[in-house]
Specification:
The chain is of the alpha+beta class. It is built from twelve helices and 17 strands. Helix content is about 30%, strand content about 25%. The structure holds adenosine-5'-diphosphate (ADP). The site of adenosine-5'-diphosphate has 18 residues, from strand 6 and strand 14.
């Protein structure tokens, strides 16, 4: 037995933080990046620059890796099947990953399993959107391209059949899914990790706050969530992981409705923004557990280390140089954990996150919020 090499396709911040988690585990880490400037390419020593859409590039990348995993879900499914058929260990496998790659496939399968989801249907054109709206009790409805969306891109809230947003999704040339617009009380995420031989762990269910379709803040555990509902969410996520044969980290994004129901919104089969808090707030981070899972190692303890942990994303603001603000935040709050991704600052781009832990939720939330706003340049004191 020797220490294995994990290959991660995609060189963004998720790969950068997975690499970081792999260092104390002593495992090798190779990353397939688009450019040398990618967040993970700036820190990893074993970097391959190439196009993840090209099968030969993937083959060459996989040579020497004991397992191949992902920082995003965009690798074409036929390439993943080809690699797997050639003996490459791909985790999660292509059949599982299909549910994170295509929202139509995900909705169809979850409905088959009886998992509660928003009412939905694949629609052909704006007239079909109008018919769908009539079926679900009227506008607004949500339209989504089944593939290629992220951070709210590829999602439209449509208020009328003749609104410009009703035509927009059909321009991408991929199937469009219509969903009832859920009047949710808040968004939650149930994050679990599952290994190939079936061991699984569940993290505390978190509340995730989105601003303009982008994750802004995550609170662990979700405040005021009744224990039975938290257990229901964890059981649901564990069941989805098992039924879909997921290996690695699975994020199940949920809506909590005003009448207390849970509906599944989205699945992600990789480390996820709603799990970043685990780096500082859980015994084992999502990144370490993702590595352990794809290597089929025993999984680490997912339990929290503090009563409350709050993570706020740092988005690029108007000031390209965050360094002076960075110094201020460190001096003001030595207990704050700051994670920067080494990315160039562009307005709205996720460039880092901060985490605060403690016993008083209001205080913890304010510390994280202050630092994220200060780094972005929204506040200056
Ligand atoms: P992506 O992850 O590709 O950005 P999502 O499907 O998660 O897309 O949608 C992004 C955000 O849009 C969600 O976090 C939620 O705030 C909102 N949203 C998505 N679907 C619905 C829906 N059916 N009803 C109400 N809001 C929705």
């Amino acid at each position: 037995m020797t220490f294995p090499v994990v290959g991660m396709v995609g060189g963004g911040q998720l790969a950068r933080m997975t690499h970081e988690a792999g260092i104390p585990l002593g495992v090798g880490f190779r990353v397939l990046c688009d450019t040398r400037q990618d967040a993970a390419a700036r820190v990893a020593s074993d970097v391959v620059v190439g196009d993840y859409r090209d099968l030969d590039t993937l083959r060459a990348f996989a040579r020497g890796c004991d397992v191949v995993t992902f920082d995003h879900e965009h690798v074409p499914a036929e390439h993943l099947r080809a690699l797997r058929d050639e003996g490459v260990v791909v985790r999660p496998g292509p059949e599982a990953l299909a549910h994170a790659q295509d929202k139509g496939v995900m909705r169809a399968r979850l409905s088959e399993l009886g998992v509660p989801c928003p009412r939905h249907r694949v629609v052909a054109d704006p007239a079909d959107v109008r018919r769908f709206a009539e079926e679900v009790g009227g506008f607004p409805v949500v339209l989504k391209t089944v593939r290629g969306g992220y951070d709210g891109k590829g999602v439209w809230l449509v208020r009328a059949a003749d609104a410009p947003e009703a035509a927009e999704p059909f321009r991408a040339g991929v199937p469009v899914l219509a969903e009832e617009a859920v009047d949710f009380a808040r968004e939650l995420a149930a994050n679990v990790v599952r290994s190939p031989h079936g061991q699984a762990v569940a993290y505390p269910v978190v509340e995730s706050v989105q601003v303009n379709g982008v994750c802004d803040t995550v609170i662990a555990p979700a405040p005021g969530l009744p224990e039975e509902r938290a257990l229901e969410a964890q059981r649901l996520a564990l069941r989805i992981a098992r039924e879909l044969d997921v290996t690695g980290h699975l994020a199940v994004e949920l809506f909590e409705t005003r009448d207390g129901r849970l509906l599944v919104n989205e699945l992600a089969m990789r480390p996820h923004n709603s799990g970043h808090w685990t780096q500082d707030g859980a015994v084992t981070s999502q990144f370490a557990n993702h590595l352990r899972a794809v290597l089929d190692l025993p999984l680490g303890d997912p339990r929290p280390r503090a009563r409350w942990t709050v993570m706020s994303n740092v988005l690029g603001g108007d000031y390209p140089d965050m360094y002076p603000a960075f110094l201020h935040c460190m001096a003001r709050d030595p207990g704050l954990r700051i994670h920067m991704y080494g990315k160039d600052v562009k307005p709205g781009r996720k460039v880092g996150h901060v985490t605060a832990c403690g016993a008083d939720l209001d205080v913890v939330r304010e510390r994280a919020r202050h630092a994220a706003d200060y780094l972005r340049g929204v506040i200056d004191e």
